[in-house]
Amino acid sequence: MRSTKIVTSFIKNNGKFLILKRSKNVKTMKDLWAGISGIIEKNETPLERAKIEIFEETGIKEDQIKLLKAADEMRVGSPQYKNHEWEVFPFLFESKNPVVKLNWENSDSKWILANELKNYKTVPNLEKVLFNLL
């Protein structure tokens, strides 16, 4: 089975969590709600990639976030590809009064309570990823 290493981060602010709706322009999981995610490249650590993705996808800079928790790596099956899984490295950050500026990868953002995530059509196992961070 082939696998791809990715990070999925959540930003917490005033008890709510930021989720992003993936745009129609991305290769996978179009129009599904997700955390801030990206493929780990070359020799990067998962934490380095998480901070890069947060800035690229939300415009929130590294000095505006504080790492609260990193959960154990999780393996998630990929419904789009046969014999493929995602190796997810989950992170939870906190940010005070962040202004979100989306790039082309996402079409919408929302701040939600953790128990509201079930009301959204998300990438596979997003709720499990979030609850492993709480």
How would you characterize this protein structure?
With about 130 residues, this protein is an alpha+beta fold. The protein has a single domain, classed as Alpha-Beta Complex (Nucleoside Triphosphate Pyrophosphohydrolase), CATH 3.90.79.10. Helix content is about 15%, strand content about 40%. It contains 2 helices and 8 strands. The protein has helices spanning about 45-60, 125-134, and strands at about 1-15, 15-20, 35, 35-40, 65-70, 75, 85-95, 105-110. Strands 1, 2, 3, 4, 5, 6, 7 and 8 form an 8-stranded mixed beta sheet that branches. A hairpin with a 6-residue loop joins strand 6 (about 75) and strand 7 (about 85-95). The longest helix has 13 residues, at about 45-60. The radius of gyration is 14 Å and the shape is globular. The N and C termini lie far apart (about 30 Å). The model has no long low-confidence stretch (mean pLDDT about 95).
